[in-house]
Design a protein that fits this description.
The chain is α+β, with helices and mostly antiparallel strands. The chain contains seven helices and four strands, in the order H-H-H-E-E-H-E-H-H-E-H. Helices cover 38% and strands 7% of the residues.
Amino acid sequence: MSGPPGLSSEVPGAGADADGAIAPRVGGDRGARPRPGRYGPGGAGHGHFDLHNRPGADRAAVGLGQLERIDGIVARKRWMGAEYTRRLKDIKGLQLPTEEPWARNVYWMYGVVLSEEVEMDATQLALRLQELGVETRPFFWGMHEQPVFRKQGLFVNEHYPMAERLARRGLYLPSGLALTEDQLARVCDAVHEVLS
């Protein structure tokens, strides 16, 4: 029950050099996209520097097409965010996204964070939800824990407790544009079942 992010011009396999040597690193699963069942450094992080910085014409065309539909996409994502919040707000120990008077959340992804009073971490929650048919994605790990930077000798012996806590206690619920109201309700029912 997961789908692509709300706005995405990702086209797997779109990049390659003349002899195909770079193609595996710029197309498909580049390491930046969270992979199912891959929690921890390298699972929702960057393992190497990519040469995937310039979009090709096909990706640019997809992005332009999405911009033509941006108002509808944002409205759909905001509806999902409001529905998730309405259905999950009573679960003790589950921090939900917020909105402030000065900032409007478009809910590109719907991230939740487990408080310390919840005995399981995000990996355990994801596995329990997966058993109930709900696929989730982990939060990204802090830059100081990204393998690409550690390989460069950066962030040696540095710790950032808030980033580390969020990476270990947060995850994203399904929030693709194709998610139906019934599917969203099933996700919420599963979260209630696991955390109640």
